Give the backbone structure.
Amino acid sequence: MSNKFNRIYIGAICNRDLDILQEIKKFCSKNYNFSVINLFKTGSDNFNVKYFKKKIKKYPISLIILKLLSEDSNQTIYNAINQYAPDIPLLNSLNSVKICESRINTFDFINQKCKKLNIPQIYHSFYEACKACNNGKNIIIKLDTHNIPSLPKNDRIVGIAKNLDQFKKLTSEYKNNNLFFQEYIGELDIVYKIYVIDRWAVSITSYNRLQDRTGLSPLELIHIRVPIEKQLKRRVLRLGRKLGMAIFGIDYVLTKEGVPFIVDINDFPSFRSIPEAISLISDYIYNILILRQELSKALVKV
């Protein structure tokens, strides 16, 4: 039998954090006889529908990994998957990837579906945020789009408005275009990150990007692992299930009273500070594909 059918094939539609994809590709090939097929045309980060159709037809792809920068052209990818690969499962659901492109959509989802998770108050319009600021609320202003190509993470934060004049100054050049308004709950030095792979979760410390870190030593800048409170872990895992995400990350802060507030969600983060992530992600892919393979064989026998 041809080697093409001895291997298990995974499709990858990825244009961010390509280093982790390359590591997953190597690990899967070496340990599981899986091949990861790039569904972007070679030498290009532009999605080509004809090339996608050709690859889907050529390889018996069992799973698609979707890890995208936030661009308007992504809709072409979503349409192509729905039209030409509707029965191929995704590592994270199509809906979750689309939701996480927008901060407003992400936090609206939490508000509607995960009411036990704490999030800072969000404002859906320039008028709402302006009114809240005028009434004494500090407002953090970010770009609504999450993974903007070639834009450093710090530049996605427009600033913090502590009065109406600051609010108007910070938003003047944007004209309410693609902005996300949220109550700023305080100058907290530490942001905690939770990385999730299926039911495995780990939390690390990360210094707040809004704070000056020039005086910190290399030791202080190390991401230190910290325990996750059991209730918070359960609620975060439930969020992943409701969104249809198996691999994701969240950022949260602790108030002075010790209450966790979710401030960011990322579908398929970089995992740069989690050295065991490559093997855990690869193991998860292996387990779900083998399970589906065995289930398929059982159904055929029945």
About this structure: The domain at 3-91+277-301 is CATH 3.40.50 (Rossmann fold). The two ends are 25 Å apart (CA to CA).
